[in-house]
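Hi R.,

Here's the chain you asked about this morning:
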Amino acid sequence: MKIGFVTSCLPDEDLESIAPWAGAAGFEALEVAAWPRDDGRAPTHADVALAGAGEADRVRAVLDGNGLTLSALAYYENLLDIDRRARALAHEHLLACIDFAASVGTPYVGTFIGRDVSLDVSQNLDLARGILPRFVEYAGERGVEIIIENCPMEGWHPDGYPANLAYSPELWEWMFDLGLFLNFDPSHLVWLGIDPVRALVPYVDRVRHVQAKDTQRDLSARDRFGSYGKMIGRASAWDTGWWGYRIPGRGEVEWDRLLVALADGGFDGTISIEHEDPVWGGSPDRVREGLRMGLAYLQVRVQTLTPHGAPPRTEPTRALIAAE
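And here is the predicted structure, written out as tokens:
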């Protein structure tokens, strides 16, 4: 397994400054932010609109020159947006990301399914069945797979309900039937009350990429706000009142169990740290220090795994879970 990070945590820097630092720090891969340059909400470290103008060569050269691989392109957007124009733009950009991934030599484009918040879940699933297969087919023709992060994206819904219909195993099975794959992030499952390892094991063969993020909870505060979080005076979608994202090792994810489950299931891809830890944010230096801590924490654990899975002292993951 390689360890990398999502470049969106350094939005004001370009790839030419991020990659040398990442290589020197010991990272092996980058999940490169690829939102449209005029989007204004997220960074552009690979401008897929410039694919025909040497951008793929630039990205490849920057990464190769610093001993890094491109684990995936990151374009996490609502493909079922209630705003038809926004939806169409997201579809257009996703196709551009797929083309760029093929040209630069990475097999994965990461995104969301999303949700039309004016429709119920069943209606959204029907909507997605009519929209998403063409992207799967388009990607497959170019040797690319679309990987979906299991984030609820509750901030997209006016009442904080899940607005990315890929947040639970029930919905993973549905999206796998469409030919999509999983960019597995355990942090979301923790606050949803789902055991990440129990959720992962039956579907590990559909995991193509892992995002490493942790979650810290305050269960006494949950008794005040409930699972959906604070509703009055909420400063942002992140202001839940009872949980928050942390660097790997700073929260409640059982990384040893999780990594064993991945290894036993044959996963040998990239673990990409998604830095959204407010404790280690606020400045590029703080973000970099958080990334270093996450890397050090994961490196120790990854290095204990044999090429065939867990160390000999560990029982097979399925048996271990069944016995718990």
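One quick note: Strands lie at 2-6, 29-33, 69-74, 108-111, 145-149, 181-184, 207-212, 214-217, 243-246, 270-273.

Cheers,
M.
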